[in-house]
Amino acid sequence: MSETEKITAGRTPDPQTVVVHDKHDERHQGSVTVPQYQTSLFSFATYAEFDHAVAEEPDRPMYSRGNNPTVQQLEQRLAELQGGDKARCFASGMAAISTAILAAVRTGDHIVCVSQVYGPTRKLLENFLTKFGVEYTFADGTSLDAVRSAVRANTKLFYLESPTSLLFQLQDLKACTELAKSVGALTYIDNTWATPCFQNPFALGVDLVLHSTSKFIGGHSDSVGGVAIGSEELIGRINESEYLLLGGVMTPHTASLTMRGLRTLPLRMERFEKNGLRVAEAMEQLSHVLKVHHPGLPSHPQFELGKEQMSGYSSLFAFETDLPVDVIKRWADHLEYFRIGVSWGGYESLVTVPTLPEGYESAAGPVVRLYIGLEDPQLLIEDIKQAFEKVT
């Protein structure tokens, strides 16, 4: 053991160190970046070597629908950063979510899902899984009693999203995972909003953590991907069945772009947190804003729970307004530094006025979702104000 290893033994590396220092592979010839293995297959010198790889080396690259060295390097880094044993990357966040859920349930099983879950995930349960006899119940994730009441004898999975991505409600992760374990169910969470930098669901008992790498992890609005992170056993189960059969795999090029973005994730999250809170605090003072939904604000009803579960906050939040939808859309048109778009996690600020689906009855007026990018936050605040002045 080197002197550095002796000094740091038992210490968890900080996130920025994790994303910068790779466990280099000699095949990379000392390259400080991971090469793109842009190939569909990998050949073997002898048939004996091929047979050995098939029988004994499940992680050995053979065909890029299964394993690819570029993607594997990203998977190793994401697993280490999030604190899981193993990771599997996918072609999109929904590919990761769909594959992971399908691996956890079968005909006759039941899922408890938070009611304000990401819209496409809700549609997966409502429109797809029901075709195969999988049941579900949407529960108010802010109430442990509501979650408990949703449990059935055939419940096999709790699906959480904390915070949710429209009204930013939290679930008590420790309480939910304890409840799930008491009935023999797995717990999954979409951790995209908080990122590995600000929330470690594994420390609170969650079995599988999901991310859309298209958002903060990729960070540059130029890649689409997803990842599932968990134990060796759980990721192995997903890999052996749905992952290989459904084929929603990440390409080497996407993995390379995502790895590049990952290098600066902790630094970017520091800036996002500061920018997001500053703009959210300013929004609370504006006359046509009824309520700001940001877990980092003391006005958030679950502010204390957020401090217990998270070490920081990202920069996506929402506000309710007393202006009609048509007026607030004209307000969005007048913004100079916000682009109108549905995603988030890149460098640029975004705005959208979503149509609230079932499960969002608590909103008092139209909801506007803001994503605060890396720009000067004061400039964004002034932009928001001038747009309001033009429509009121």
Please outline the helices and strands.
Elements lengths: L2 H6 L6 H6 L26 H10 L12 H14 L3 E5 L2 H12 L5 E5 L4 H10 L6 E5 L4 H7 L4 E7 L11 H10 L3 E5 L4 H4 L9 E5 L13 E5 L1 H15 L5 H11 L2 H19 L5 E5 L9 H7 L6 E6 L3 H10 L4 E2 L9 E3 L14 E5 L5 H15 L1
Parallel strand pairs: 2-3, 2-4, 4-5, 5-6, 10-11
Antiparallel strand pairs: 1-7, 6-7, 8-9, 9-12, 11-12
Helix pairs in contact: 4-11, 5-10, 12-15, 14-15
Pfam families: Cys_Met_Meta_PP
Cofactor: pyridoxal 5'-phosphate
Catalytic activity: L-homocysteine + H2O = 2-oxobutanoate + hydrogen sulfide + NH4(+) + H(+); L-methionine + H2O = methanethiol + 2-oxobutanoate + NH4(+)
What is the overall silhouette? globular
CATH superfamily of the largest domain: Type I PLP-dependent aspartate aminotransferase-like (Major domain)
Low-confidence stretches: 1-11
Output the strand order for the largest sheet. 1-7-6-5-4-2-3
Distance between the termini: 68 Å
CATH C-level label of the largest domain: Alpha Beta
Total domain units: 2
Strand content: 5-15%
Main sheet makeup? 7 strands, mixed
Supply the helix-strand structural class: alpha/beta
How large is the radius of gyration? 22 Å
Q: Figure out the total of helices.
A: 15
| CATH topology-level fold name of the largest domain | Aspartate Aminotransferase, domain 2
Q: What integer is the average pLDDT?
A: 93
Helix proportion: 25-40%
Named at the architecture level, the CATH assignment of the largest domain is 3-Layer(aba) Sandwich
Element order: H for helix, E for strand: HHHHEHEHEHEHEHEEHHHEHEHEEEH
Give the total of beta strands: 12
GO molecular function: homocysteine desulfhydrase activity; methionine gamma-lyase activity; pyridoxal phosphate binding
Modified residues (N6-(pyridoxal phosphate)lysine): 215
Catalytic activity: L-homocysteine + H2O = 2-oxobutanoate + hydrogen sulfide + NH4(+) + H(+); L-methionine + H2O = methanethiol + 2-oxobutanoate + NH4(+)
Protein name: homocysteine desulfhydrase
